[in-house]
Protein 1
Amino acid sequence: MKIGAMFGDVFQSMFKRPATERYPFERRPAPENLRGELFFDAAKCVGCALCVKECPSEALELITIDKAAKRFVIRYHVDRCTFCAQCVQNCRFKCLSLSNEKWELASGKKDPFTIYYGRDEDIEFLLAKAARRNLETPSED
Amino acid sequence: MNELFPLLSFLVFPGGIFVLASGLVYEWTDRKLVARMQNRIGPRWFQPLADVVKLLAKEEVVPAGVNRSMFLAFPVVALAAALTAALYVPMAGFSPSFSFRGDLIVTVYLLSLLTLCIGLAGANTADRFSIIGATRTLTQLFSYEAPFLLALLGPAIVAGTWQISEIAGYAHNHWLILTQPIGFVVAIIGLMGKLELPPFDAPEAETEIVSGALTEYSGRGLALFRIGKDAELVIGLTLVAAFYLGGLSNPLEFLLKTGGLLLVVAGLQSLFARLRIDQVVGLWWRVGALLALLQLLVLVVLQGMGI
Amino acid sequence: MIQNPKPQKFIVPIGPQHPALKEPGHFEFTVDGEIVTSVAIRLGYVHRGIEKAAEERNYVQDLYLLERVCGICSHIHATAYALGVEKLAGITVPPRAQAIRELVAELERVHSHLLWLGVAAHEAGFDTLFMYSWRDRETVMDILERLSGNRVNYSANVLGGVKFNVDAAQADAIRRGMDFLEERTHHYYNIVTAEETFLRRTRGVGTMSADQAEALGTLGPTARASGVQRDLRIDSPYAAYTEFPVQIVTASAGDLEARFVVHVNELFESYRVIRVILDNFPPGEIEVRMPRRIPEGETISRVEAPRGELFYFIKSNGTDQPERIKIRTPSLSNWASVSATAPGHKLADMPMILVGIDPCFSCSDRSVSILPHDRQSKLWTWEDLRQYGIEYYR
């Protein structure tokens, strides 16, 4: 039975630095194995699509450009991703990894949430195709 | 000039702008101190001002089922009462602008008017949280008011006057905290009860009844009540400091003494769990009132014996 | 103002949106002055249809879906599910993986109990204790982030093992964290059992006898605070709890103070068992291969979540998608104790009694039907459920 059992804490913290941080101005480095944005190394991919099949949030799409030449493009929807790392677990060729640097992913626009990984010319080819399709069938709005 | 002086003192100093500004500063200091005691950073210096400006700019919703004119009038009356009370206390260490025999009683009543207005404002609305909050506010008012008044009467009796300026003048030569420690403790805790600070925040306990009597208030009304409370914090601290801590003769002394009191108040706020309303009433009537009465009795007897 | 002059029941509604509730739920307290005379509970504001959604996904995808049933005890849900599916598939998970599962589960219990300590203190208006216990909870959150890569949904499990290993540097970081937390927890124990103003809000509030606790079907720390000897980690050990056993923690008073005592003492027990695991880590693999298709069958998987017994029923039909998954969360069983113990207390005690069972609202959003004693249980088909839903919301 006593009154003011927290007096010690209260008194000491007057002379201590606050535990909270002014986040956007002060930031701590992220831990080494933080699960942030997904990175895909197209050069190693064999197109088994195991990552796509077991993605719980359907954030990955594998687009085959040329199966024989092992040219694949991955369309990655960051906004759907739950950063569970199941795709990293599934990949037998270690072409997927989660970054521990890119984790502040908020954006006011929709575009940064779709990321293409693959050879530059393949991505350009895909984007050009999509643009052409948009021209042919103009959207209704 | 003679007609201008009361207006100036009501609107600029020591009432009006000065009390409002210092109220906001004291509120910030209080929040910052509590935050530091809880190992947090706390708000930036302009936060209370920003809150008030934001509230003033917002729409005031008058809920269904209330008496509209009363709903709008209560915040104004509450703030006006607090500002008027500022005229009778030695604000910032200067002698009070107005003074007459018995102004102590008037000041204490003016200070209670704010709480009364909050209680009535809560009872005016149909909201169930407001009604419970209003009941609790008024219950708490009846429990701390008598001991608080008794605690302020102690210095009045030894000074032999009911005029604040004279009591403050007497207290200038006597640190009454040494001779009347019980009165001091009762006064400072009574002030916390008056301002509904933790642990006496049962009337606005957010985890039970949202924000108590003021749940339905928004915009201007809420802003006025809030700055009214801030003003009362300054006035209350000034009164207690002037009576018990050896008077206030200059602004520096005012700052140091009220600041020290605020530190104590902030410490008490962060040390305890909230008391239930029945525990508050029990505490005040079983302990607070009895102690204050005992102190008063001793004073009266000593006075009678001519010591 | 109350327009109707005739005496009527004064009901204080709390929720679905209310500062005392961090998740939506609706409670109607009938009060007589400040005294509560009866309580009605209505849940279901965050019903997400997870059980149905689980039938539409394959086993691996379900692991992450079910991890999100509860925001606080995410790991234990995934563990219960993984243990069940592994049993169906007839797979033995390596001991090191099981030890890591237990390690993460105990770390999660530490974070959950510290969180509860803070929330309960906040409901009592003791914000200083709230701030300090949450500040110290960051220690264990950081440890979990450093281990797994995420603060909340650790995703430690995969079917057939765990995702990450624990190396020596991480083990040292955990030991340091546990030392710090143990010291702080001793301090909190002294506060919750000695601070006069706080004891006035907890002692004798929401008291439940052991018989009552049994009859109401309470689980976890809520039941153990009333002296019920029930802890699945001891009664039917899963994962690595046979190699690294824990001691049961009980109290007899059954009031809120006893629940504080049980929670805090369980923290000490968790610190102890975490250190034991770190000192005696079994070597070896952390994952075995899992078939995509799970053989036909059904199983029950029970684990001890921070809030009590968590129950999973899994039925497979030989494909890569489960036929049916049924979850019974501990919070759901504990709600009855709130409506039983609340009447007679003050309105001011209600937030404390509500939080006293450490409720998880999104866990509790499952369909409940209470049958009278003498009636046999009833089988609901999908069509029945659908019809019931249509009728209910009409």
Protein 2
Amino acid sequence: MGNFLQNVVNQIDPYVMQILVNIGIGIILALGLNVITGLAGQLSLGHAAFMSIGAFTGAILTIKLGMPFGVNLLCSGFMAALFSVLIGFPTLRLSGDYLAIATLGFAEILKVVFLNLDITNRALGLSVPPPYSSIPLPVYVLISVVLAVTALALMQESRFGRALKAIREDEIAAEAMGVNATRYKIQAFAIGSFYAGVGGCLYAHFIAYINPSDFGFLKSIDILNMVVLGGLGSIPGVILGASLLTTAPEFLGFMKQYRMLVYGIILIILMLFRPNGLLGGVSFKEMVLKIFRKRTQPSRA
Amino acid sequence: MLWQQLINGLALGSTYALIALGYTMVYGIIQLINFAHGEIFMAGAFFAFLMVMVLKVNIFIALILAMAFCMLLGIFIEFVAYRRLRNSSRLSALISAIGVSIFLSTLALLVFGADAKGFPDGIFPNGQLQLGSVSISFLQILIFVVSGFLMLTLQFIVHRTKIGKAMRATSQDYNTAALMGVNVNMVISFTFALGSMLAAAGGVLVGVYFNAVSFNMGLLVGLKAFAAAVLGGIGSIPGAMLGGILLGVTEVFTVTVGFSSYRDAIAFAVLVLVLLFRPSGLLGQKIQKKV
């Protein structure tokens, strides 16, 4: 099985593969932020911090314990989720934008702590050995993306997803309808951070070298941009946003130094003219159904 | 030693307080965390630096020019990036503010480069005042005088003038204030102008004090100032002053005790503790939410 998959992966051009894996990891990270910001309407500015928790947990588990990669991914995700509950508990009880500041602050603290810990090899960063698994990494990325998209699509239509949307639209009204806003917000935050942790673990093993400074504020903004550009709360939108922004540097190599400048302008203009993003409000289910209907019912004209 | 560190902490804290005031005033009026505030602080420092290097003006004149420049910048940013979003979701305005922040800091990076710039030597007399075992540099005295003067002026404007009354009315109830004939757009522009002016003053003082002006100075200091505003009680002007000074002193003492590599983490640890135990801050009032 492993050999067969390895052969399949080897068929694909390494450069294309690298881009595809990056897109996949971007999608997982962006979907996680989409649960927090797109569904629950809470802004997290420390998504990269939860990614870094996943990355370092995954790296250390591989280095110290040689843990099988599948289990490792789950552990990394749970570790990130655990920290998110710790940081979410004091801040999500409050309404307002405290989460944005607290996550931003937490990300800075975490970076400082990682830069001073021996187990993360301080400022030198960690070299990550290949994952302990016969199945190649790109397959893990693909499976993770499929699972992440499916879980989120199911979540959106569930009682849980509807509660989150109610909180996003009007927290006070939602509470009046009996939605326990704090509990749901913390759960959404934990799920989003779990995604970030898994994404971080994949990233660490794919890049094979991680440094606390890689997971700074700009990385968080990168992920936020994917979600906002594609469409807050829309799965196809997030996939589009993640794909566009991951491949953009490949096409726009010449304007590398202007990238952040353009990002800033994109954020402002999108908010002013299209606050729901390019595909905001588009649901995955409806899109699939639409295509399906078109196939089964040929136009009568 | 203790007193010496206290003076150093007060000097640092006064600059935090100047910046925290801008956050607290804007939040008090339109409930927006103005993420671009830290970048206005940075812009003020760079503008003064340019004035000193290119026009060779005195540091005091550079300070006043930087304040005027940032006043305009603040009004402009509000007009372009926030005004249209006043009635949309808070998330949109917040993301727009982040956009402004990224734009300004990247612009500064492209124009001035990545390395920190220092003010030329002798821009400000280097002496110090000896009080027993405590020495206070002239620069620290300048920080105390300028920030003290600005804070008193702000108190005067907010509590003794007509526009101050309009500001207080708008922050209490935006719609009612508008119905009572307050020109809320003007009041909001004025609030941004005041806050940005104070941030610029803070920027110039910090730039001269640490002798470093860089494109990313706004991010961390802006965050710390926001933490200070929350510590004092967001929306409360005396709270921002108290929060800033407390935070500055705490930070300096943490470094003295020997945790210098964690100095930047202190502000956020304080922030999380405040949110945990007293979300309304030291001097803030608990706000009753209404539908």
Protein 3
Amino acid sequence: MTEPGRAWGDAPLIFERSRSGRRGGRVPDYGLPKPELPPGLSRARAPRLPELAEPELVRHITALADRTFGVDTGFYPLGSCTMKHNPRVNERVGLLPGFRDLHPHQEDEGAQGALELMWTLQGILAEVAGLPAVTLQPAAGSQGELTGLMLMRAYFADRGEERDTIVTADTAHGTNPASVAMAGYKLERVETDARGNLDLEDLRGKVDERTAGLMLTNPSTLGLFDEGIEEVARIFHDAGALLYYDGANLNAVVGISRPGDMGFDIVHYNLHKTFSQPHGGGGPGGGPVAVRETIEPFLPAPVVVREGDAFRLDHDRPKSIGRVRGFAGPFGVFVRSYAYMRAYGPALREMSEVAVLNANYVLAKLRDAYDLPYDRHCMHEFVLSARSLKRDHGITALDVAKRLMDYGIHPPTVYFPLVVPEALMIEPTETEPKERLDDFVDAMQAIAREAAESPELLKEAPHGRPVRRLDEVRAAKQPVLRYAFDDDPAFVG
Amino acid sequence: MPAAESYPDDLRYHPEHDWARVDGDEATLGITWFAQDSLGELVHYEAPEAGSTVTKDSSYGEVESVKAVSDIVAPLSGEVLEANAKVVGAPETVNDDPYGEGWLIRIRMSDSSELDALMDADAYRTHVAES
Amino acid sequence: MSYLSLTDDDRAEMLSAIGVSSLEELFEQIPPGVRFDRELDVPPALSELELVTAISNLAAKNAHAGVELSFLGAGIYDHYVPSVVDVLLSRGEFLTAYTPYQPEMSQGVLQAIFEYQSVICELTGMDVSNASGYDGTTVAADACFVAKHTSDRSKVVLAETLNPQVRQVVKTFALGFGLDVVEVPHRGGTTDPDELGAAAADAAAVIFQQPNFFGCLEPAADLAAAAASAGAHPIAHVDLMTLGVLEAPGEYGCAMAIGEGQSAGCPPLFGGPHYGFFAARQEFVRRMPGRIVGETLDGDGRRAYVLTLQTREQHIRREKATSNITTNQTLLALAGLVTLSWLGPQGLREVGETCMALAEYAREELPLEPAFEAPSVKEIAFRTPIPAREVVRRMRERGVHPGYALGRDYEGMDDVLLVAVTEKRTPDDIDRLARELEEVLA
């Protein structure tokens, strides 16, 4: 598969398809008098929006879709992102008119079906986390993190305790330290030991009466379950601090081990990872947060409560940290994740079991072709290193990633976690059949051979995509961040 | 054209991969070949203002490549006389000539005894080999 | 039902390749004390058919715009979403891709984001736009974070006529940002520029909304000038669907323009997912939160698109990042791009004009007095002779939702009803609203 598979051609910008005076949609004219705006408020110059009729607009969208690779296109083992199949029934029910056209300011009595769905979803999430109270409001995982940290602030303020430091792992996603800073906390970083667990020695020296809590992903971004998690929890709880569970890797442990049982006090879920909300080219997501009873009074308002057979949004929460986004959360995401959970029922455990089985199978097949920095069974993902390829053949993790594209496979996450040089972080997910895993294994093994035999092939990859490697330096040094309109005849006058 | 690896003997070095060239009570500061090589081609230099103060071992600015950002650590304390406008406009100058055209700031030193704590080229070469 | 593909033979073969005799061996790394040893207590599994039935039954319990004539707005507007948006949403490539970290695999979504950024800049009169924020509330908090880091000030000023949910979100996060929040009350439905300017002394930023939460048009240029002369960044919170008729914030001196994108391309959907837009003048580009796509060339000199200025972001700058955002609202933002492109400049102006005409029609026809004198685009606050919530209750019994009771957020406004129209409401609909109001108030 070394030759370009097809001729891609160029894709004009939507502005370049535009012709002055061409119309797309029309708006009803009810024959009412046309009101005038007061001077100074009305728009002086019409915005240069594209002018297209529907046929070209549809072709444009289609052309762009064609130049985009999704899970529907092929294997997408992007580590820590859980690129599983997105069932189409979820899309169907997510856009039922009873949801789609339901206004979020509708009175509770007029939204009983939506509230019941959210209430049930809260219950399932609570059971999965092993924690009793859930807010659905946060918009995504990183907002869940910030919400969790604001909950810690409110909890300690309520107790009259001054704590200013949050501990994170050196394997943490960048969102963790960024959230810590945005929540106004200081950051303390703890190291990973030789087995890939938190270094308990290092940890003990960094936890004291100033520590508000820990943020941890478990299994970690190395795909390894922290074997010392019970001791970790003891260290923090003995110091009066709290534990926050970053749910990015929850897909490894649903029904197998619960964060609440591990000792975590606050947990966020990524509905777009574990519970199959489609990733949408970058979003939307959903980042509900579950907490222990002691933290429940501080949850963002409103929360969904049940009273007899009726459901309502409870806004009267005097200790709440406040609102973290509009309304009660990204409802359409809730419908899809609810549908996903109801399709599995208690067999959600099997979802995680197969995710772990698939990852370990691929790991077993690739361990001889690449470096394996932590030699253990993995959970739902694992991290390889291209360190030897780089040393022996000058081939980097990035070269491997780009070459995978020529095999019709989306690259894994590269250069993360930071503790592994030339990292390749691979998460197959449970929805892949064995044949696709074997295709990936074959491709990765072939690339390792190519690295030795014809390294130039890798250096110049990809060969079969719409574009070759990009000049990212140029993009950053001379940023062009919007269409310039210069000299475009469609927009003159 | 990126420069070849070198660590001139007339400079003093800080373990965070910064150099100082001393001239009377003034010093010119920059980052070493090793630092620019680790970062890759620079695309941005966030420079301090003339007149501001830099403190030894503390950051006085940032340099960025496409995929990395690095604090620039002051090897010496003092007042900023000038930031290198050429590097602000063309950050890759640092990659091309880290010890010449690619200098970052000139300062008036506030404590010349700080020089004693810096490494000479031989010591820095050993430091780099261990990095 | 299951979305898993492994057969029993597959499993046996895979376990053998791993070198374990059972799945349980893989989980031995989990300490026994934290293994979950019972079945999850969750509702039983459903087939796809049962699932559709169960969820359809829930959907049917909601009073949506198809069964109730609704004049609700107050931040979420029932504009028409064109059918071409379905083309976008049904393409699996957009739906099932993630953040375009690998540009060679993602040129389509990258180019679409670049086009979205261009449209947002053009509508708001700004130089740079990000690829989206979560919604119209969180982009306001983002803007405060940017303002704090581009000034040495630690206060933000919010007009009271700014959407209450936006103000609540800013207050939630201001605590962590180290910002004090000051609010400026309205005077007869709009904000007084002098009062705003006085409050803006020592403030990093001022945020006001145009049209404001009461539907009134603010003296936006005067507000921006008052903020700027106090040394605070003026930030306008605007509605894309009004920007065919209303002046662009960049033209009246704003530093940033933000807002809720829902009205352009997204159905109300009980509050989300929608998208927030964030645009700013060039000087803020290195402090912008979130993803930004830039144009560049590939190795063969072809035009191409890539995530750029990434050193701002959490995966590189970590605790010094301009924001912690990673997953955003790309798919919804692209629905906005498609909707605005479908409308074009002419269509967008017609949407604004039709809404204005309908709002004026409602002002004349409804048996209620407008609460404020200021002009409107698509939403008008009316005084009600009985509490507005009671009006809502009585009207809903008749299958009409008359609007938003402002007493839900504003003290002393229990007798104010906020009535929204979009191009989807007809003069006949407004006639019916007028008729039913007369009857319930008789």
Protein 4
Amino acid sequence: MERVLLVRYTEIHLKGLNRPYFERALVDNMKRSLRGLEPRIEREHGRIYVRGIAEENFGEALDRLTRVFGIHSISPAVAVDKDWETVVSAALELMEPMVSERPNATFKVLARRSDKRYFMNSDMINKELGGRVLDRFPTLSVDVHKPEIKLSVEIRDMAYIYCDEIPGPSGMPTGTAGKASLLISGGIDSPVAGYMMAKRGLTLSAVHFYSYPYTSVRARDKVVELTKLVSKYAGEIRLFLVPFTDIQMTIYEKCPSKETTVLMRRLMMRIAERIARSEGAMALITGESLGQVASQTLEALCVTNDAVSMPVFRPLIGFDKDEIMDIARRIGTYETSILPYEDCCTVFVPKHPVTKPKLDELRASEAAVDFSEMIEKAIENTELMIVR
Amino acid sequence: MIYFDNSATTACIPAAVEAAKKYMTERYFNPAAAYAPAVQLEKDVSSARAVIASNMGADPSELIFTSCGTESNNTAIFGSLKAMRGKGRVIISAVEHPSVYEAAMDLKEQGWDVRLAPVDITGKVLLNELSGLLSPDTRLVSCMHVNNESGAVNDIDAIYALIKRTAPECLLHVDGVQAFMREAPVRCDMYSVSGHKLHAPKGVGALYIRKGVHVKPYLLGGGQESGFRSGTTNAPSIMAFSAAVADYSEHRAEYREQILAVKKRLLSDLSRIRDVKLNGPDIDHAAAHILNVSFMGVRGEVLLNALSEKGLYVSTGSACAAHKRGRNRILNAMGITGERQDGAIRFSFSHFNTPDEADRAAALIEEQVNILRRFRRR
């Protein structure tokens, strides 16, 4: 008897001739995620089998795989020889602990037979095995519609038996959709935005702006930590830390006060785009959500967009704050995001930011000051950190 | 570096370091052991206890060693109530340290009638308000001696007299962590102190329990500290604590004068800057080592970051972020809110500080405040 993790994947089957490419990428990502646990990963008939994980690492492997995009679900299974009595005794052994926990549970056997030469078909297996389970655990009862315990048996090269199906994060394997740069603050939204786009297969890099010396080392550590949390799903992230104080101060001194926030965002976008291009990224990602704050009204977003030529992905655009917070909690970034440190967006804030900025006015305000040297200097002093 | 955060913690004096080292490397025995050197060690700990107790105006038998101020406060509050029958009222001042406040909130959950005694704008408990709260079933009042944010000094003797007059059964616990050695000893039933606020290492504190007051132990085990606090005696830290107290006791007047000079200098330097408000009592009525001021129109945390970059270490009155304003429980209770709360900075001094440091600090602050005020919300 051998313990294996049986992994099902999602949308990849939709991809015609590209399918092997996506499957290979998924397997590679799984290997990377399971580094150190010495797995043997085999791909076969629309399934991926993870074998060779030591007993004590099984939980850890399962946990890591629930963060690999492209995985639909995972079942910890036992694989045994197809000999019928062996199958039955393995199935009963697997049921044992569940029955002792819930002696009066309902159950159903769900057999699948891809080895068509096997001497019983799926129906026969269901009936036979169901009978044997009832003989052994007479307090159980059968419910084929809504069973509490689903005993699955798959007859393939071996017999695979399992009861659990743990959901994966779904999505597309990271790295199959190209590269994009995430503008990451210290807040709740941007890590969620990064997570969501990585889920669609993007490789992420990240750009963070900080207002040294007015923001603290703790604020910076917080961003590194958030990036790390996202990287648990998205894989290694190249994080660029951009000093932004000079630009902010210049904006505040030389531009109309109500426009400062939008101007600041335009300049951030410009710098992020430059960094993104140098990284081979083709798009920017932000955590903006329509109407959430003054700089995220439709007018403000148009003005921000105007600063760059790359596409800007805003996966949270139609989400309420509550919905974003729910995802942040689920992916584990929320608690870090709410640590209360001043960040570059809160250090210098106007009291009455414009909510409906006019593009030509903003362009004019920006053109009135020569930012080019400051942008160059910020990029030159940008620090790169590899976060994994 | 200019370190103006001595209410957070202090540097160890060499005598304390030497004492700790000696009892870590040479006299490292367990004082509960039976052989001669261990017995000697037990005597050393006894003499340390005597040094600290005498500076509290207490008998050595009334002092137990703990691991920190928090443990002393928790032991005093939970331990004394546990020794009583039934439940009743517990009053704490509205500006207590979290180790008292959170303990009281826990009591509230357990069904105790917990009340907060209001303070004036300097952070000092209002005696008439406290008097109004004192009911016959009040079991415990916990009130700090010196407020760690504002430097306000409570009149503990008056509070003690008030309590014994209105509710004779009620106990008075005093968190003396910021006051010990800096203020004169007071009358109370329990008094908490901590080593690292007085140039001893972290990890040692003490609790005075007046003879006759019944306190149930918090930690059970080998019965050390007369059964009040089990756990192997932390001789190195206790000896260091005693060395630090002895030093402070010897130089008390001199240290106070030095500290006060630094504080006065800083305050006078800062008065050059416009729109600076003093939080807490006038300089003559406050604890000498704490100065809290608000720089109006500046956010304390932002200023702190900028100062820390220049090597000046201070503390904000408020853990505020833009979206978490007005959350400072202490300043709120004092009625210091809005811009004044946002801009609050606490400076706290030790005898290692000099007036020259105050001058340099003020220059740095003036520079940063002027920069930041250019960027205040318009």
